[in-house]
Amino acid sequence: MDRIRILLADDHAILRAGLKALLNAQADIEVVGEAATGEEAVRVAQEIQPDIVLMDVSMGEAGGVAATRQVLRVCPMTRVLMLTMHDDAAYVQQALDAGAAGYVLKRAADSELLAAIRAVQRGETFLYPAVAKVLVDDYLRMKKSGETVAAQAPDPLTAREREVLTQIAQGYSNHEIAERLTVSVKTIETHKARIQEKLGLRTRAELVRYAMQKGLMGQ
Predict the structure, then answer these.
(1) What is the pLDDT of residues 81-107, one digit of tens each?
(2) Over the stretch 201-211, which tens digit does the pLDDT of each residue have?
(3) Beta partners for 87?
(4) In the chain, where do the E strands start and end?
(5) How far apart are CA 127 and CA 82, in angstroms?
(6) How far is CA 176 from CA 12, 155, 210, in A?
(7) Which of 4, 45, 73, 118 has the maximum number of C-beta atoms within 10 A of its C-beta?
(8) Class of residue 189 by CB neighbours under 10 A (exposed 0-12, middle 13-18, buried 19+)
(9) Residue 158, domain extent
(10) 90: domain CATH number?
(11) 115 in the same domain as 12
(12) pTM over cut 0.70
C-alpha cells in the first residue's frame, strides 16, 4: 500500500516533532519533509512533490496562505491542508480562496486530523465543523449589520442538490454525506459536479458563500 507522503510546514519545531511522531506511527502515512517558513515550504514541496502539505497559516513574513498559492502553482498534484490555531472567518476564507483543500484547528483531536488527511488524499475537501460554524456566524453578523450580498438569483438546484450542497458547506466529507444520505460516494461526487457546473463555482469557499446567501447553512 502506498503511504500518504506529507510535508510539515510550521515554524514551531516542537510541534513539527510531535506531528511527525503521530503521523509516522500510521501505517498509511509518512512524513517526507519539513519546513519552518512559507518560502521553505514552497522550495521543499517543489523538490519532493508530496501528496499533502500540512500548512500553518502564520509563518514569519510569508504566511501559509501565500505559500499555499505558490505550492499549488509549482506542485499541481499536491493538496494543502491548513492546520492552525486561527478560527477567525477571515483566515478561513483566505485559505480556501488560496486553494487549500481543508482547514483543521490545532485543538482538534488526533483522530480528526488523521481523518482530514485521509479525506484530502481521497480528493475530498475537509472543513473542521467548528470552522464551518465560524463561517456561518460571520455571515449572520454581516446579515444583521446590513453587509449582505446582492439580491439572490433564482436557485437552479434540485432539492437533492441543495441537500448535498448544505452538507458540503457544513464541512462533511463526501464519504460522510454518502453515509448520511444512504447513497454511494460516486453519487455524491456526481451531485457535487453538477452543483458546481450549474452555479459556475469551482472552490469550496464559493460553495460555502452560495449556501450562506441562500440560507442553507441552518437547515
Answers:
(1) 998 887 777 677 778 878 888 889 888
(2) 877 777 877 77
(3) none
(4) 4-9, 29-35, 52-55, 79-84, 102-105, 126-127
(5) 10
(6) 32, 25, 21
(7) 45
(8) middle
(9) 149-213
(10) 3.40.50.2300
(11) yes
(12) no
